[in-house]
Design goal:
There is one protein chain. With 251 residues, the chain is of the alpha/beta class. It has a single domain, classed as Alpha/Beta hydrolase fold, catalytic domain (Rossmann fold, 3-Layer(aba) Sandwich), CATH 3.40.50.1820. It is built from eleven helices and eight strands. The chain has an eight-stranded mixed β-sheet with strand order 1-2-4-3-5-6-7-8, with helices on both faces. Helix 3 links the parallel strand 5 and strand 6. Helix 2 packs across helix 3. The radius of gyration is 17 Å and the shape is globular.
Amino acid sequence: MRQAVFDDEGSRIRWTEVPGAEPARVYVHGLGAASAAYHAHIAARPELAGRRSLFVDLPGHGISDRPASFGYSLEEHADALATALDAADVSGAELIAHSMGGAVALVLAHRRPALVSRLVLTEANLDPFPPPTAGSSGIASYEEDEFADGGYARVLENVGPVWAATMRLADPRALYRSAVGLRRGSQPMMRTLLEELPVERVYLQGELSGELDGRQALEAAGVRVLTVPGAGHNVMFDNPGAFAAAVAGTV
């Protein structure tokens, strides 16, 4: 395990790492998740073996610290992730990022372009204020104290065993503030960043999630949009072969 201090209080962002060839692949999880739990089985596949791989847990999640004074906005998550990559001597990385992690990756690529050479985004949040059915919207519908004092437990009961397995590792207030920040979005907005970034960009949409809004505009901007058969939001679990092929760039 490696770690780096990301705030003035000495809080640490942590990651596990597999050595290998550069450029590194950096795996970034979604809201209430953890990177190794969602991606280690992908990085271990034969078609992806041999590359340096980092599994970073964002502040408030997994094995990273959860300072009470941290804001957990997309920009703050991106800056903390940049601190980890700087400490790991990573540049020109491929970011493999899921859901909220995809939004964080876009902000990072915008703020620190030398750190990122390629983006593979899985159902990343591109727009503010997702529909009420989205997990972030449900969490953000509470007030912070209300969520911490009972809403968190109710959400854990209702999200299903897969998401709950890692959400229970997230600090309730960090989870809430991350959800609020995700609903607020970034400036410029994530969709605009995806359209304008000059690196290779791949966007994975699960077939079961329905058509991606604005797909034609993204493709016109040079984004490669792939619909993954038989997959929902968690493409890496639902169709790991197709997910690995997208990461490897063989589809």
